[in-house]
Amino acid sequence: MLGYETELDTVVHTLYEYYDAAADKVNTLGAEAMPRQVIHGDWHPGNLIFRKDEVVGVIDYDSCRVAERAVDVANGLLHFSLLAGRHPNEWPDEADEERLETFAAGYRSTVALTDVELRCVAHLMIEAMIAESVVPIARTGHFGQWTGFSFLKMVSRKVCWFRDHEDEIWELVSGA
User: What is the CATH number of the domain that holds 9?
Assistant: First the structure.
């Protein structure tokens, strides 16, 4: 964006640092030992069928693959807990903790996550948020209807929240 090059450079550099730190943390915690399985790979409310307040079906298996199941959990936690507004500048930084807890409880009801997986989840959420935002912005300069710059600023704020609330996320996800 003309006139905002310095601020854009700062946001991109910050996201790079957040991503790198999250990846380092996941590797330090033991990513290579995390269980792998067939995962859905695209958890979000639009891929669930609801009857009243109950999930009765899961659809859209285009992103299925064998991967670490913690990646699947982190992706779902991210997409179910995001709070949005009309414009990314208005989106709150925090995640919806009730939705985080609800998604985690649903997943836990079928699969018991290891301590390593639980400790990695917040960092995997950071990686997912950045990676899923940067690719379309790099390709088009936009994320949907929003300019890439405004969207990246919002991503930076939310990622900072995830980083600063890692322990709270662990508590919600683990059911501790």
Answer: 3.90.1200.10
